[in-house]
């Protein structure tokens, strides 16, 4: 088999202010073909097999006027550069002693067909992806047994120190991170009561099948009252994947000294209206703690924690399977379209692009 | 001298929805005269000399529909009951071995001329008020060397663990609590840089005279830019006395892992418009911590900390004086009027009512 000498790639063509677009006059992304460089020492040539789709990617492409680059936890994507994304790929050729042709790797591959990576570059984050037990698809390294599972674990266990017997609420509970929070809370931490919040009755029933005592549909007309009833005298921990109005409601449903893991605020990624926080004074009167965190801060021990997650799966404490991911077979030309599904709220579990 | 047998008292007559009123058709408070009971065992009869005025009092009188009583850190004031307030008084008669006629005491005296108190009742919180060194007025027990000084100390030192060399911003910096935060940060903790935020140029110059490196007027048209410039690459600690829009601005001016002590949110006490929090995502991306606290949680060691505050005053590390309080000589009929000055934003330091 001859090695490829060119690669197609989706580059950032313009900074979106609202929802990104492509294939129109106001394109965010553009498809280009570039020559691949010859491999230097320590480099590997990788073919992209799967791409991870993450809301955080939206933050990397906002107009410079809307972001303060030094406040982003990873640098923004520059105009003309390939759109950044984690992925899984197959090594086609290697000038690095740690990798051989045929190896499966996780890396920051970006939206490209083929990537030449310096295997020691931290920004590339190349790690071997060994086969998973029980016939689990390796795509779970991009989700439940990768970034999203680790986000759930660190947020719940380390950031807010959730303990056995505590009462927990999780928003975005049918999402990639939220569905793992629900399971880690019930199956690993031993929370006594876990309430999920999701965007449809169908998602809610799925979250309950994962072990949540209850899951509430935030689109229901009675949501605010349902949440108050479900929280009773208040909960100890709120794992917040969404920010905005649901966070505001939750401020009024925490116990004294309750802890909130601030993991995401997807409702403001695309410049939508920002709603007032009516219950903010509860932070003071109820002595609440809101703690923001980024999974990247914990990556030094990621391999160890992935081992714990895989162990919990083997012991039946966490269920990982097809229901934890939506793998979308995608033509290279359609990569942005699959990614945009993130913002339609219709996915169950981790959204993975399969090339 | 014959002992009084009756007392006038201001009672809560109706729950205000906006700013409280009195002496109009929509009265919040009403003046009544009640008989005083004879002293039982352990009780003392106290004449009110000074009353403490605190924004938190507003929260105790909101309509039941607007508050969730179990979420208040002290119970609401009931209709027909005397308005609750801390104060300083003189013991006129005692059936309690720990107090004698003539003693000066701190207690929850309420808006009354004379109070019969059970000296052992935690709700009354009766403590002897010994003379202060250096000719300092005992009224400072209601402010700089009492609740507000303790609030400043615990928020800064215990809640967010401010350390020597850190950069600190304080809002409400000309207020009773804020002016102590500025001084404790610079004089006791050893912060390298302290920026105050206050509501007039005059207040700002006073805050700078207390040791702040800079004080910014939030009413200035250039405030947002001034704050950004003053914060440079971000600050470690924000002591938040106000919530609302200034908190929102500060979210964008914190260092990674910055800590915010959430002490107050005066802008929403009177039902004013709640503004959106545009920079909330910085809580996640900058891994910020927002920690609400209530000084009452720390009262077990209050006497010890008051001793440290008095010591810092004696060593010249903290300056306490007339500038830390506004003592308003007030006819009993005008107690609500003096209290309402809290919400006009015109006071410097602790607002004390002198009867």
From TrEMBL, chains A, B:
The keyword rRNA-binding does not apply. SUPFAM superfamilies: GroES-like (SSF50129), NAD(P)-binding Rossmann-fold domains (SSF51735). Keywords: Oxidoreductase. Coiled coil: none annotated. Residues 24-353 form the Enoyl reductase (ER) domain. PANTHER family: ENOYL REDUCTASE (ER) DOMAIN-CONTAINING PROTEIN, PROSTAGLANDIN REDUCTASE. This is Quinone oxidoreductase. It comes from Lithohypha guttulata. The gene is QOR1_1.
